[in-house]
Design a protein that fits this description.
Length: 601
């Protein structure tokens, strides 16, 4: 692998060569920690802004940091691979060659047939570590998903965090384990047939422990972001930040064998360069795919409904493989819940289901929430370019009380929603706990060390949801907020949760195995949404087979004509907590409220 940048320690036998880029500094001192003593080594400036020093006899993974001329104190490596003492502590050299991989037979991700499972390492298990998550992979195999998408695992302040407040792109959060522990998790996933995608944040850096600006022009004041200073992609000195990000893409994929990256909120990446940084990320991933002889997937999150993100580079796009399609979630959510606050005011039309099964809902129409026209036409883009979900960390965790869908709609409609998800011609994604109707919330939680930041986060949450009453809104900085978000252990599931798990498991198996469903093909799709009866009929074709789904999203029984085919899946069977049926399922032409029925024609 190519050198990852000027500040990555290079190991050679008993020697370690340290390099750091420190813009316009007259000097830099390397500070090493060995037991209880500090060793200081002056660094030599060999190129403009670049300082180097070689040490030996200190082992292969010593602790270190940098003292910058003109600054008080010492600072972690801005490109640190590991921060065992947290965001303010010493960095640690990582001997990546020491880990022995066992995934040599891994063929790579089969993206068109991917079923994603989004999870947060800290609450996926009781221990909240990479090793503990690796022990739970058989559960995911039983469920039937074939890829996991991890929320960010970079170092954040304190004991817990969603991960979007990371301060070093290359670090692995010590709360979850060591870099080798993360490699072990990925290794185990690959050996069990699970692909691994990682959520990365290139639109901003966290506020605490963020020392990048001391080392160079990584930020710009040209733009404002909701989270602070914008990353410098097109201002003076932008080559530094651009190089760091592209090296980071290579780093996670080559050093940790990841199958892809999910790019957080790319609409907040501001870049007016001739070649957008997203295009360069896509090109880097394509180069890696050829080099490694396996598919590398880049998925973008964006709220703009802009096909330029996913269109091929030769067609004027950025070449990203896929994007999250929130219009699908918003349409289904508002129809099920009736909510119309915030951006949900733009949704809720039952006929909108017909459009979001083949396109964005907003393809240039006026948005009341955004107060402008929004979106482009994505009808010609293949289904595999869109990731859709009923729940995500954003859509659950950014609610005032973090309610999951299981707290908002009745049990049958949870199954009906899953029927919509798995018959849609897109890449489906589950959010951890969805598969058994988890009742614990997923809340916004942080654990800042800086007292002013702790207070600011708590006050900000209070103002954001002022109308709800602060006594009812969990404080992100309260330990109980994190603890309340943990998943329920399987041995404590309620009977209806076991039934829901069986429902998801069987429906996922059908999605993966049935020729008419297993690939996200829009071709041959038919959908009809009847707002009077609140009935959805979906027909899918593939492999010479045809299936037709009937989904009752209303509150009354729907009486149909005798069904035209053989029932192959019914949400109302008793094993799924259903209400049963008289004779053969659907024979009398009755569809219960919330029932999902799938036939083969």
């Amino acid at each position: 692998m190519e050198q990852l940048g000027p500040s990555i320690p290079e190991l050679s036998g008993d020697k370690i060569n340290f390099n750091v880029y420190a813009h316009n500094r007259s000097g830099v001192t390397l500070q090493l920690k060995q037991k209880n003593r500090l060793i200081e080594v002056p660094m030599e400036q060999r190129q403009p802004h670049c300082f180097s020093a070689t040490v030996e006899g200190l082992g292969r993974e010593p602790l270190y940091r940098f003292v910058l001329a003109g600054e008080e104190g010492a600072y972690p490596d801005p490109c640190s691979h590991y921060q065992p003492e947290g965001v303010h502590g010493f960095s640690q050299v990582v001997d990546h060659a020491a880990y022995c991989w066992a995934d040599q037979t891994w063929p790579g991700i089969n993206w068109p047939e991917t079923i994603l499972y989004e999870l947060h390492i800290g609450i996926f298990t009781a221990a909240g570590t990479f090793r503990a998550a690796a022990e739970k992979l058989d559960y995911l195999l039983e469920l039937g998903v074939n890829a996991v998408e991890l929320m960010p695992v970079t170092q954040t302040p304190g004991r817990w965090n969603w991960g979007y407040d990371g301060t070093s792109l290359f670090s692995v959060n010590h709360n979850y384990g060591t870099p080798h522990d993360f490699k072990y998790f990925v290794d185990c996933c690959h050996r069990k047939g699970l692909a691994v995608l990682l959520d990365v944040v290139y639109n901003h850096f966290g506020p605490e422990g963020n020392y990048l600006s001391l080392f160079g022009p990584y930020f710009t004041s040209k733009y404002d972001t909701p989270w602070g200073a914008a990353v410098n992609y097109d201002d003076a000195g932008c080559a530094l930040a651009r190089k760091m990000v592209l090296q980071n893409v290579r780093y996670w994929i080559e050093y940790y064998h990841l199958d892809g990256l999910r790019l957080d909120a790319v609409h907040a990446i501001y870049d007016h360069s001739p070649r957008h940084i997203l295009q360069e990320i896509a090109e880097t991933a394509q180069d890696l795919s050829q080099k490694l002889q396996r598919k590398i997937v880049i998925v973008a999150e964006t709220d703009e409904n802009n096909v330029r993100v996913i269109n091929p580079i030769e067609a004027g796009g950025y070449g990203i493989d896929a994007q999250w399609m929130d219009d699908f979630h918003h349409t289904v959510h508002t129809i099920l819940t009736g909510e119309n606050n915030g951006y949900y005011q733009d949704y809720g039309d039952f006929k909108g289901l017909e459009k979001v099964f083949v396109n964005y809902l907003y393809t240039g129409e006026y948005s009341r929430f955004w107060k402008k026209k929004r979106g482009t036409d994505g009808s010609a883009n293949p289904g595999q370019q869109f990731v859709v979900a009923l729940q995500t960390h954003d859509q659950v965790g950014n609610r005032a009380r973090g309610e999951r869908l299981a707290q908002l709609v009745d049990f049958p409609y949870l199954k009906a929603a899953a029927g919509l998800l798995f018959t849609a011609p897109y890449i489906p994604m589950l959010f951890m706990g969805e598969e058994y109707a988890e009742e614990n919330p997923f809340l916004f939680f942080t654990d800042y060390i800086d007292l002013k930041l702790k207070e600011a986060v708590s006050e900000g949450r209070k103002k954001e949801f002022a109308g709800f009453g602060w006594d009812k809104i969990p404080d992100p900085e309260d330990d109980r907020t994190f603890e309340a978000s943990r998943l329920t252990p399987r041995e404590k599931w309620k009977p209806h949760q076991e039934q829901m798990f069986r429902f998801y498991r069987d429906l996922i198996r059908l999605r993966r195995e049935h020729p008419a469903l297993q690939r996200p093909e829009k071709k041959g799709l038919e959908i009809e949404a009847d707002p009077q009866q609140r009935l959805v009929r979906i027909k899918r074709r593939g492999g010479g087979r045809i299936v037709e789904a009937y989904i009752n999203l209303g509150k009354r029984n729907i009486h149909l004509k005798p069904l035209p085919g053989r029932v192959i899946f019914d949400s109302e069977t008793p094993r799924y907590g259903g209400r049963g049926y008289d004779g053969a399922p659907g024979a009398a032409g009755r569809l219960w409220p919330g029932q999902f029925l799938l036939l083969e024609l």
